[in-house]
Amino acid sequence: MFDFYKKHSINARLGRKGAVQSITLQSGGRKHLFVGFDSTMDIGLRSPTNIFGQPTDQLLFDLDAALSQWDNQSTSSPVTKIAFGHFPISFSALTSSGRSIRDVFLKHSLSAYLCGHLHTNFGRNLKRHHTSEKNRFSSKQYFQFDICEGMPTAVSNDNCSARTESAGEFWEWEMGDWRSARSMRILAIDSGHVSYADMDFRFGSRDVIIVPTFPLDSRFMQRSSDPFDFICQATSAAHIGTVRALVFSRYKIESVTAKVYELHSGSFHLVLEQEMENTSGKGAMYTVAWNWRDFSDESPDRYWLQIEAVDMSGKVYLSEQRPFSVNGLTAKFSWTWKEFRVMGCQWNQLYFPIMWTTLAFLFSLVLVPRTSLTFYENRFMLKLLKPKMTRRSSGGFSPVDFEFFGVELSKMYIIWSGMLLYLLYLVFFPWFTGYAVTENHNKMYLHYKGWSTKYLANTSSMPYIGLPDVMVIVLPHLLFVVLPAFLIIAAIAAERALYLRHNIYQRAKKDGDHYKEACYTEYLCIFYWIRKILILLCLPIVWKHWKHCRAIMRAYEVNPFIDAPIYCFGVPALLWLAIYRSSSLGVYQI
């Protein structure tokens, strides 16, 4: 009842009910295929556990069929395929059979996949080039460090007549949104090659918009097909022998000029300036012939193109400078750290490895000291350690062994037991209950595997939904609350062990030495400040945890005392017990 899109959208008014829609166009001997699809979950989960696209095997089948419309026809006309979807590949889950949208796109070697979701919230360079991998267990299924990885296919004039099947590839281009970023994209297809220009309207309307269509921006070229097209179509004057651009203007355009700059020693030098002509006397296409062989170079970013337009009032407009390569070479550029986090990481694949690695470390932090304590309490081991302890005690104060303060945590039995029980609770029991679905009046249980569907109708085949969407709750809690809290507790236990050992040493050396007494007081001051710092470090952890709990309370109508008592109060209680146990030593009385 709350799905307004199905009632009021253009698709609804036209009677389009499927999750995949397509449009086909034929022009100038070429075919163009545009396919849009909806991969949102059928069950509308509340935010924030709804950040992933949830494609089904049926959706991928329909998507594959839509992209294959012209594949079986006996025609030599090339087909340019472009897909539209909401979720980027990095935020699209796998189907129940383990397939992904990326597999379908690689099969058809799309020219571009246009998506939204992230928009410009994490940067304006959210683009990624995907290539098929021969190695099934490649690291690319988890992350990709650069926007483009791998080398473009080498093509020479000798093998133009025998073109081999190119590797599967496609570009993923995130789009800015109009609501918050006031961004609009103009996409152009020129002789099968796709280029675009993003317009920023945050500071008002644009009188002139310029979209260069050829030569292509070498940063966004297809790395296997475009080098072949550039080299093997070199004799086509209509294709590679002209510079082309679209110029949209509110006023009459008096002149359009193509400028080519050479990048040398960090500065641009103008090497070509030619006036362009309107192709048909009207419309937006401007062209000019050029000697493209003059710009053949092994560097993909040595030459840069810029289009200049002058309107009837004499005002000059310039397009963004973009590198090009007539050799078909691809220029490299990189993400920022923020952009890499959302585009370079395949989060649906990384969720479980990150979660289980963190839990394994936390369990080892709790269980290894206990095992060490049992080991060192053996009488035989104590006999072996006695000579070592005697030698150290005769040589003055020595820092305590790691084994000594490592087992101190397990001696704080109540705290140690609480830490172990809390970890077991996170693995085997629901974290909290809340209203995850707007239309469902029953509360649902959240596990690390997703929301339990026990009280949700028509979901008997799915025990959990919202995987890996629940990672936005699970991973921040483990990495930014539980992990630092347990490390602080271990540090408090280590400080307690150091204090006890040092106190024992000093009591064994009561010989009236005033210098040693002064050193003893100095060490106590050090322990005092260490403990104070550890207590202060607890404050940001508790603050972060409180913010998480408050967000969950608002999102899912959670009562912390009834629906999530262990989740909300478990970690603060363990920190408080550790501080209380440590402060009972009386060091604050110095």
From TrEMBL:
Residues 353-565 form the TMEM62 C-terminal domain. Keywords: Membrane, Transmembrane, Transmembrane helix. InterPro entries: Ig_TMM62 (IPR056229), Metallo-depent_PP-like (IPR029052), TMEM62_C (IPR056230). The chain crosses the membrane at residues 350-369, 413-432, 470-499, 520-542, 562-580. It comes from the Eukaryota. The keyword Amino-acid biosynthesis does not apply. Residues 205-329 form the TMEM62 Ig-like domain. The keyword Secreted does not apply. SUPFAM superfamilies: Metallo-dependent phosphatases (SSF56300). This is Calcineurin-like phosphoesterase domain-containing protein. It comes from Urochloa decumbens.
